[in-house]
Amino acid sequence: MTQIKHQLTDDQWQRIDAALKHFMQSVELQIDGYQVVLCLERVSQFHNGITVHINGSFKGQWGVDFMNGHGEGFEIIRRFYPTRKRSVWTSEQKKQLVRIYGKRCAQKEHGLDKTVEIPGAYWSNFNSLKRQLIKENHSIQLIEGSIAA
Asked: pTM to 2 decimals?
């Protein structure tokens, strides 16, 4: 039995996007049984981001679960938060390993091209957030009244 996908209309996505261009305004969604609140917040001195709160909270333990590959947080991070790939080795460390071990040995023993996925705490782009929510979730519903008309 396939599950029916309930998605938002284009007009609703546009209203959410418009609401998240302003501070002090949040958008509430019901996504696959989770209450999700999106809010534009200041994340550094000159940078804003869209934060995601699941069932009213954001837990650091979720990031640990994601890095371990299991647990409640793994599923939540995978569905609702951005992930970024980072190289295990910095370019300077790669140069040192090649100098010490040689290129072939360094690649074979230390994996110079290894990357790790790191969960992010906020979204810097609404369209990326939208794509992720649509791709990873079946039912997305806007809680009416959460966006001022």
From this structure: 0.78
